[in-house]
Amino acid sequence: MFTQEHHFSYNEPEKWQVDFPQCGGFKQSPIIISTPKSIDILIFPLEFGLYDTPLSKPISLHNNGHTVEFKIPETMSGDKPYISGGLLDDTYEVEQVHFHWGSPTRKGSEHIINGHRYDIEMHILHRNTKYPSVEIARLFEDGLAVVAVLFKVVKSENVFYPGLNLIYNNLQNVQSFNSTSDTMHLITLGSLLGNINREDFYTYQGSLTTPPCSEAVTWIVFSDVLPISFKELPKFWNILNEQGNKFVNVRPIQNNGFRKVFHRKPLIQFKYLG
Hints:
Elements: H1 16-19, E1 32-33, E2 39-40, E3 46-49, E4 60-63, E5 68-71, E6 82-85, E7 88-101, E8 112-113, E9 116-117, E10 120-128, H2 134-137, E11 144-154, H3 162-170, E12 180-182, E13 201-206, E14 217-229, H4 233-237, E15 262-264
Parallel strand pairs: 1-8, 2-15, 11-14
Antiparallel strand pairs: 3-6, 4-5, 4-12, 5-7, 6-7, 7-10, 8-9, 10-11, 13-14, 13-15
């Protein structure tokens, strides 16, 4: 997630800890999430503040050699989208979005849910507003929050989510390393979540999944999986790294250790039939 300043290779992720000691820590991500092993928890839903307010300028995709990412500008209201609630004690302001993908022979999600590795995983990175920058926030265990959305390929061509399709349509413009593409249209951050159930998610304490692997992340992984058309998925596979090669940017699963994974389910409304 901080790939601009850190040089590393997905060919040998087990060696990351040589240069980045935190990558060998005990609260690393991604992990396997299992519904039967998770702890059901009654907590308030997350508030996705300003997620559905249009952003003030178009997003600009960038290929940094490890992923396709884009920073999130302020909304039309002058403030950035944020999340709060759930198990979060503070307000977390959005910083950037990026993707993880596989290849024609490998699935591309980083987290595994109930035995399934999916095709794409999108990360929406947020910074605790009590810290002035991401670089400082990642030094504290409550510094960052990442919302993860998983995607499953479907045979249909008719899968349309305005924000996501805008990204898909611009991926060919950032195929080469260090290339950038302005999308030219205004979207809401919420449009990247499609019609996902925002009230049903897993949450646990973990790390960034790229060096420096800071153990500063409250993960929020949605239970729902979004569809992605078979026509859009290969656009990710064609992204090239600094050496001009296609790549898979999936970190191996990390040991869960003694960490608890919580599962927030939407409350079922019972009608009194007395």
